[in-house]
Amino acid sequence: xxxxxxxxxxxxxxxxxxxxxxxxxxxxxxxxxxxxxxxxxxxxxxxxxxxxxxxxxxxxxxxxxxxxxxxxxxxxxxxxxxxxxxxxxxxxxxxxxxxxxxxxxxxxxxxxxxxxxxxxxxxxxxxxxxxxxxxxxxxxxxxxxxxxxxxxxx
Length: 154
Known about the structure:
By secondary structure, the protein is mainly alpha-helical. It has helices at 15-25, 37-40, 58-73, 89-97, 102-119, 126-131, 135-152. It is rod-shaped, with a radius of gyration of 35 Å.
């Protein structure tokens, strides 16, 4: 298929007139300095791959903040809040969450699930598990729960 037409309505451009028009717009053009041949091409910059930015999920943040609270104020047994400021695991979760919100509930469920994984299915509540284990055992569960929340991106 040929799309050419016999007659065109275009006027050819006079190249000399075109050059004179630009000379009138810029009567004294300053020539650009010549670049050495080695610098003529832009330098190749290797692309680096940055690690993707990952935001901490609300459950991971609640668990991390609660463990930091325990590290700062101390861990307690048989009491939600010890007179000297230490807290049990559930007390630390409440302090970290600020309220009984979704992150608090989900963090508690994940913590209890991890306690059951490590110490048996018989534990019905976080306080009952917390009160019958050592500080090292409790910390191990907290750390594992934080890793799981991180891995699950929650």
